[in-house]
Amino acid sequence: MIPKRNVLLALTTTHHGFYRGVARFARENNWHLTTDMLYAATIPRGWKGDGIISHVGYWKELANFVRSARCPRVELTMVRKDLGLPYVDGDHRAIGRLAAQHFMERGYRRFAWFPFTNDPLNDERRAGFLETIAKEGFGLVDLPPLHELREFTWRENWAKNQERIARSLEALPKPVAVFCYNDCAAANILNVCQKLGIAVPEQLAIIGVDNDELLCDAVTIPLTSVVHDLEEVGYQGALLLERLMNREPNHPKPPLIAPKGIVSRRSTDMPSVEHLGVARALGYIRQHFEKSILQVPEIVAATGMSRRPLELAFKRETGRTINQEIARIRIAKAKELLAGRKSPIAAIAKESGFVRANHLNRVFRAHTGFSPGSYRKKLKESRPSESS
To answer: DSSP states of 131-168 as a string?
Structure first.
């Protein structure tokens, strides 16, 4: 079959979600995609085709190439409005709002914003975050950007930037929740925290954006991230390009693409507490609750405190004893496993930190009023009515 269109993908420095969205549209509409730039990272001068989908960013040569092309073009961001091209983008204010809601649900009252650079997308995400926390009376501390941008050119000294960021993080009152422009910025904050000895998430919680799984799961403390629907941005960009290539009059401007939610990982996996020893105890419990023998002295030793002061502070901050918190976390894990798969109760008991199945049964019944088996049956019976 002869391809209907030959489209250039000019997306060298961006997330693979864009590629998947454009490729899905291409399969559905018999496009041929010229993908040299994905591998060569050079501009294909002399290329001739039907249209271009670009993410120019701050590459001047690519901006000039796309601007001068004699075919329909669509840019996958609002950042380069100076190019005068039609564009598709995500709802960046909604991304900021989601991050703020996630932090506030965990009881945070101090917030900071860490931009990747000083451009309109950073401003939009910050605005959505700030408007959400401001409704509850909270303020925002602005950290220096990871990269400084002047006239679409990077102007920076990376080592000096890291020093500025470190000084800013040290000065923040703790505990604090830091919203980062993307996962790259979040990984940088984590790196600086580890050099400074700032505990994540006990003292500083982190959220990134894009849910780049290779990055979020590869760092020492997996990163919570807002799921920016880049695949849908790419798909809608391809749809807009198709309409432009067909010379459709009055084609509708694509809506801003909403984020798909948040993937919660360890970088926000605990409530905000003021007492550092309690925060360390909570963090230790979350990391080690699966051990069948997890006792209070072990947790106390991890905090560097004496037992009695820790137990009093723990009860004051959380409303629970340390043993009650261990049981609560284990029951929550068991509920998650019972809802998600058909593993034997004995396997769920082991994965939840219980010595054996009858131990899980006894504690689970005391907390919920159900045995694990009857709880699973109840969930199964409720699903048809929930989906109707």
So the answer is: HHHHTTT---EEPPPSS-EETTEE---HHHHHHHHHHH
DSSP bridge partners of 257? 90
223 close to 183: Cβ distance less than 8 angstroms: yes
Domain range spanning residue 160? 92-229+262-268
Q: What is the pLDDT of residues 103-136, one digit of tens each?
A: 998 889 999 999 998 888 999 999 999 999 999 9
Give CA–CA dist 247/65, Å, rounded.
22
pLDDT tens for 216-265 read 988 989 999 999 999 999 999 999 999 999 998 877 777 899 999 999 89
Reported pTM: 0.77
CATH number (domain holding residue 144): 3.40.50.2300
- pLDDT value at 148 more than 90: no
Alpha helices in the chain (DSSP H): 16-29, 36-40, 60-68, 92-105, 120-134, 158-171, 183-196, 213-216, 230-245, 276-288, 296-303, 307-318, 322-340, 345-352, 357-368, 372-387
Exposure b/e, 103-123, CB count within 10 A at least 16 = b: bbebebbbbbbbbbbebebbe
Q: What is the CATH number of the domain that holds 357?
A: 1.10.10.60
106 near 224, Cβ under 8 Å? no
Q: Same structural domain for residues 97 and 77?
A: no
